[in-house]
Design brief:
alpha+beta; seven-stranded mixed sheet; 49% helix; 19% strand
């Protein structure tokens, strides 16, 4: 059996992903099905298939056992106030003297990791922290999928401090703290040399710290399809390992295979810590160590085996990591470059354009393999992605080399930062130019993409094992991508004549957007910056030039000028009321002193303050009120503190509200 580790690793990962679709009782039923299938195909002397199904059985079983023995006992602490005594493993500082901490603690005999968002206290990684706090489970909200993000990292609870925080400094030598401290120091040095957008871009691209990126630049990076450039991954470690290999080749160590490998492995582990142990970096580090470790043991390196071992190692102790976006995108991209691309490159003729063709094919294969996952995780894809990768890589590579050398010479290379800054400036110009195109990014908002992705993986796997033909496997990947593109196009065409309703909350205020083709009506409860950004993002996502009518109900944030800059035919300020606006054939807005009403094809929505809610068929209330009065219809609340057991009350901060409004006067969930 060729590529044993690759087959085992990917079978294990596929089994874990399969398990995420089922509740615990069904997980064990699925594991029994996999075990039975493995035994059947084994007796049919299909050894490879037997290994695949048996590995999937182990994966599903481990997922179920982990859920029962680890996850459920931890989340059982939800709502409890306990004394927490733990060690800080990660710190992320923000403005206004606030910070978030990841703490490894023993809670009533259960060892777990928790997060804490609090004031910035004088502490470092490795210090002991003590406080009394209330534990709660992670929750996804409109701005951040907290539960999904932390669950893949094995963190299931967050704490809110209810007492003073006590810190005991650990003065013992801590290599991890030293390396992370050096990483933070490099970030500070980059900003001291390049205080503008160039420094923020280099910090994002080399350190994965995107906190300094402006909203416009961050949005253009996404629209240009180069978000992977700002996620520290295998590309960074590969370039660093190549630099190190070059230095080793110039030293007497070049003839000592074992010593060369040990030096390289230690350096890779050090840089994994330097990049703060993100899942994609750990995956890349394991792959590189396995790949370079083949030489000392006189074995041939295998990309598939390295990928399989990395996937197995990362998910073995945390099965929930199987849904980590960075891990899956990294594996898919590596598969495209390391497996699919060489197949096509072997068919190229040797001529003077071979290097250029190889680069184009590699970029196209990586994009093709990551395309379904990008759609599923990020809700869209970039039209100019392949072109942007081709244009930016000649600038990204020298910038990354300069920053890597800057790290290795202990942040003392002014010339290196000057060269990296020039590359970053050129990259920003290219990103803003292409990212600013109206149709550079296609947004997708349908859950069916995930189903198509799973079906595509099953289809490609079946083709591979049935035919063992690289040509047919590559063809099956192309067919899967075409099916996805065709499905997306069909859904977009299906939605063209639909009236769409979007309701969003930033945790305090609410925004209601109704779109019927080019006719758009917006009602915002207040002039918050988050609401303003949401409206602008909506216009870009839907390729709209402006808004027909926008009603701003209050202005308590002194941010009304930002709303006035949004392209709008009619902008109704808080002091304008007792007005009716007709938008298109089926849409009307009624503006009153204390509330507004939007009528969509007979469906009536009232947007009013929680202190004075106006009863109607659908009520959208903003602001906070401890006890919401009984209202006749569906109630949507905006405030993050509003919690109710009443199924007729929906908190917009925790649930995405996107609907079609049909001609019969009913709401229909947009996502299927």
């Amino acid at each position: 059996m060729k590529h044993k580790l690759g087959i085992i690793g990917f079978s294990y990962l596929a089994g874990l992903i399969c398990a995420t679709f089922f509740d615990v009782p069904f997980v064990f039923a699925v594991s029994a099905v996999f075990l039975t299938t493995a035994l059947i195909v084994f007796f049919l002397k299909k050894k490879t298939a037997a290994v695949v199904f048996f590995t999937a059985f182990l994966a599903v079983s481990v997922y179920g056992i982990y859920t029962v023995l680890i996850y459920e006992p931890i989340v059982a602490f939800d709502g409890e106030t306990v004394e927490i005594d733990g060690r800080i493993s990660e710190i992320r500082r923000y403005s206004n003297d606030t910070a978030s901490y990841i703490i490894n603690a023993d809670i009533n005999g259960v060892n777990t990791s928790i997060t804490l968002f609090s004031t910035d206290v004088d502490c470092s990684v490795g210090d002991i922290i003590r406080f009394s706090g209330k534990l709660s489970v992670m929750t996804n909200n409109a701005d951040f999928e907290e539960e999904s993000y932390y669950k893949t990292k094995g963190i299931f609870l967050k704490a809110t401090a209810s007492s003073g925080i006590e810190i005991t400094h650990d003065d013992s030598f801590n290599i991890k703290e030293l390396i992370i401290g050096y990483s933070d120091y490099i970030g500070e040095r980059i900003k001291s040399y390049l205080p503008g957008d160039e420094g923020d871009l280099l910090k994002a691209m080399f350190l994965g710290d995107k906190s300094g990126l402006s909203d416009s630049l961050s949005n253009n990076i996404k629209r240009a399809g180069i978000s992977h450039f700002t996620a520290v991954s295998g590309m960074h470690l590969t370039i660093i390992s190549h630099i190190l290999m070059l230095l080793i080749s110039l030293s007497p160590m070049k003839n000592h295979r074992i010593l060369k490998f040990v030096t390289l492995a230690i350096t890779i582990v050090g840089f994994i810590v330097f990049f703060k142990m993100s899942v994609s970096v750990i995956r890349a580090g394991i792959m590189l160590i396995v790949y370079y470790g083949a030489e000392p043991f006189m074995r041939k390196g295998s990309t598939l085996n390295s990928m399989g071992l990395a996937a197995l190692a990362i998910t073995l102790f945390n099965p929930y990591a199987c849904l980590d976006a960075g891990l899956l995108l990294s594996l898919a991209g590596t598969f495209g470059i390391g497996v699919v691309s060489p197949f096509f490159c072997r068919k190229l003729r040797s001529d003077r354009f071979k290097s250029l063709k190889t680069a184009v094919i590699g970029s196209a294969c990586a994009t093709m393999c990551t395309f379904p996952l990008s759609c599923a995780f990020f809700g869209g894809f970039s039209i100019v992605g392949i072109l942007m990768n081709m244009l930016l890589y000649p600038l990204f590579f020298p910038a990354l080399v300069c920053v890597a050398l800057f790290v290795l010479v202990f942040a003392s290379g002014t010339g290196l930062m000057f060269a990296a800054g020039l590359c970053a400036k050129a990259m920003i110009a290219v990103i803003n130019f292409f990212g600013g195109f109206k149709y550079s990014y296609i947004s997708l908002d349908y859950n069916f993409i995930s189903v198509i992705c799973v079906a595509a993986v099953i289809f490609v796997t079946v083709i591979y094992f049935c035919f063992k033909s690289p040509e047919r496997t590559a063809m099956s990947v192309g067919i899967s991508v075409c099916v996805l593109v065709g499905s997306v196009t069909a859904m977009k065409l299906y939605d063209l004549d639909k009236t769409k309703l979007y309701m969003y909350s930033d945790g305090d205020d609410v925004c209601v957007i109704v779109a019927e083709g080019a006719d758009v009506c917006v009602v915002a409860s207040d002039d918050s910056q988050d609401i303003c950004e949401y409206i602008n993002d909506f216009l870009q996502k839907e390729f709209l030039d402006g808004i027909s009518v926008m009603k701003l109900m209050e202005s308590t944030n002194n941010n009304i000028r930002a709303f006035e800059e949004i392209p709008c035919e009619v902008f109704s300020t808080p002091d304008i009321y007792d007005k009716q606006y007709s938008i298109g054939e089926w849409l009307n807005l009624y503006s009153y002193e204390n509330y507004s009403t939007v009528d969509i094809s007979g469906v009536s929505l009232t947007i009013s303050p929680a202190a004075e809610p106006v009863d109607d068929s659908i009520c959208v209330i903003y602001g906070y009120k401890k006890n919401i009065p009984a209202l006749s219809g569906m109630v949507y609340c905006s405030n993050r503190r509003t919690v109710s057991d009443n199924m007729e009350i929906i908190n917009l901060y925790y649930e995405t509200a996107e609907y079609f409004v049909n001609k019969n006067g009913f709401l229909q969930k947009m996502k299927i």
